[in-house]
Design brief:
The complex is a heterodimer. Chain A is of the alpha/beta class. Chain A has 2 domains: 2-130, Response regulator (Rossmann fold, 3-Layer(aba) Sandwich); 142-214, Orthogonal Bundle (Arc Repressor Mutant, subunit A). Chain A contains 10 helices and 6 strands, in the order E-H-E-H-E-H-E-H-E-H-E-H-H-H-H-H. Chain A has helices at residues 10-22, 34-44, 62-73, 88-95, 113-124, 132-145, 154-165, 169-176, 180-194, 202-214; strands at residues 2-6, 26-31, 48-52, 79-83, 102-106, 128-130. Chain B is an alpha+beta fold. Mean pLDDT of chain B is 86; it is low at 1-8. Classes of the chains: A alpha/beta, B alpha+beta.
Amino acid sequence: MRVVLAEDLFLLRDGLVRLLEAYGFEIAAAVESGPELTRALAELKPDVAVVDVRLPPTHTDEGLQCALRARRERPGLPVLVLSQHVEQLYARELLADGSGAVGYLLKDRVFDADQFVDAVRRVAAGGTAMDPQVIQQLLTRRAAGDRPLGRLTPREIEVLELMAQGRSNTAIAAQLVVTERAIAKHTSNIFAKLGLEVSDDDNRRVLAVLAYLDQGH
Amino acid sequence: MSMDTESGNGRTTAREVATTAARGLALALVSLPGAVLCFVLSAVSVALIPVGVGIVTTPWVLTGVRAFADRRRLLAARWGGVRIPRAYRPLPKDAGPWARTFGMLADPATWRDLRWLPVDMTAGFLTALLPAVLVLYPLEGLTIAAGLWRVLPDGYWYGFVPVTGQASALAAGALGAVLLASAPRLTPPLLRGHFRLARAVLGSPQGELAERVRVLTETRQVAVDASAAELRRIERDLHDGAQARLVAMGMDLGTVEMLLDKDPAKARELLAQARRSSADALAELRDLVRGIHPPVLAERGLGDAVRALALRMPLATEVTVDLDGRAEAPVESAAYFAVSELLANAVKHADADRIWIDLHHVAEGAGVLRVTVTDNGRGGAAVEPGSGLAGVERRLGTFDGVLAVSSPAGGPTMVTLEIPCALS
């Protein structure tokens, strides 16, 4: 699987290259600025891009903007955005086109190599990987002024959180140490309580959850 | 006091002209004897200083002169909209007559008062009288036309019209009518002219500057205190938080190095702990950075930073942004933290379930950034000493910003803040 990597800090870039190579990815390019990233994405056509939000030359949200532009030209281009901080505002912009294959994670998540690599693979396969912090914020916000979430059991909330991050039923079952059947039951309960359409497609499932969490604003 | 001479309502205009004329007349009647009295008393009192009597009387007389001038300052602001700054030097409370006399005489403001008195009794008297004349003189013209010309002696002139018979009397009446018609346009500027003259002589060119210096000194003190406290907080947070965690992590790693061969299971456990420590340290650093300068603010500017802030609110928050550029970083930062504080207030105290934030920039003049935060809570918010709002107000002061609160009991609460600035 070919990856284009954009990160301006040499140490982190080097670490990410080594990490991804160790897990069998092929690094098509590892660049350090916005214009380089745009060029690499257009020329190399990678399977997935791992992009830092803040990149030179502007040192603002250059990386995010490049990723969004590239996705407008090539809809569905898998992009995993890494950031020193996560903002719902940016998460929404990434999810806005509704075509999935996006991820938005705190840089800290690379500490857990297995989970990070899992997120890269998920995004490359057209799924989503949202940072638990984004989901947490959404959930607290919804819970404060909304009744349907109040009808969920604590276990269902837990499952909803993991589901919104983009995990499959198998992954959720593994994380919560229960059977996949139990998770399937929880998810159908959640969908029923929240009035969401049932779907087998992981990606559409996440978008449905996020759309629900987001609605009304 | 509105001086709307363009008013379409004839009665209002007539009343305004009459009021202005009456005010001018009153001013003229008071300023002439008042100024003469003050001037004579001051001159005599100062002249008597060598014989000792003046030492006692001068402070009294000069205080009276100041009261006379203050009265005019008040009327200038109330009737003419003219601000004449007051810039007397403060005298020590327990000063003796000697110190008071010479303290007052050493004050340039005293000499400005004394210089103003002769101006006020001459030019000031005339400028104050003119509005009244402008109203009364046309009345004379009209009465001449109405028949008064019959009893007037030969060679009587009304303005530039020699009154000799009915025809010329009618001409005088026409002139009076023209003058009367022009009165609404002329009287207010004439009265304002009187006050402008007073300001030119009485107002210290440094009065406004002195006031400005006082405000700047005060706000600088607030800014210095606030930034010192902020630095202490950052230092403490770094020292107790991230720094301590990194030290613990280093120690854990050292132990791991040693345990690697002897007890791999224990080493693995410590490695996991070290990784958790580094994640915690990062989380703390992130919070710290958000408290110093929020990343979205740096990346996107005030509009999106406030939008991101609204997304984190536990209640429905609507944001309207109308900014076509970015303000300077310190201004953006001040506005952001002010909004953040206002939102926290609304969530904590207002018992609201909706908040509206409106950000826009007024380009007129030097430009003003105006932010309005409205909630539908229970109201009753006030800028009281020690309250969060007072803190916001003080910190905005550093940027010449102001805060206005409208919060009747029962709500809604609307807080508006304005910071003069240009966008780029």
